[in-house]
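In this section we walk through a basic example: taking a raw amino acid sequence and producing a predicted 3D structure, encoded as discrete structure tokens. The instruction is simple. Fold the sequence below.
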Amino acid sequence: MTTTSLYQRLGGEQGIALLVDDIVEAHMQNPTVQARYLPALDDPEHLEELKGHLRDFLSAGSGGPAEYRGKNMLEAHRGMNVGEAEYMAVMDDILGVLDRHGVDPQTRQEMLGIVYSLKEEILHV
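The resulting token sequence is shown next.
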């Protein structure tokens, strides 16, 4: 068992920023969820806001210094009618990015646990 925080194992602020960039790109390439993400390309300000919220969310949730000021998961996903296939596609994208970045198995497992713990707040609200 490691005493290094999840935030540190994700690479701190820089590591999380790289992960977020690659996760959003993976979502844009994934046919199951890309329709939800591609419109952000037409609004660079919104895209950066989205990435900023994701960076802060990951930082705050992993023991980092950022404070997440975005909507909670219920509010953020209300009315989106996210289905199981989309949820699983997002999880797969996240795990794929973690693998490509060489994130160790324990850290990947912790991230999977965090994402899975949010499932009921994201699906069909």
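Looking at the output, two observations stand out. The two ends are 37 Å apart (CA to CA). The chain has a mean pLDDT of 93. In the next section we compare this with other chains.
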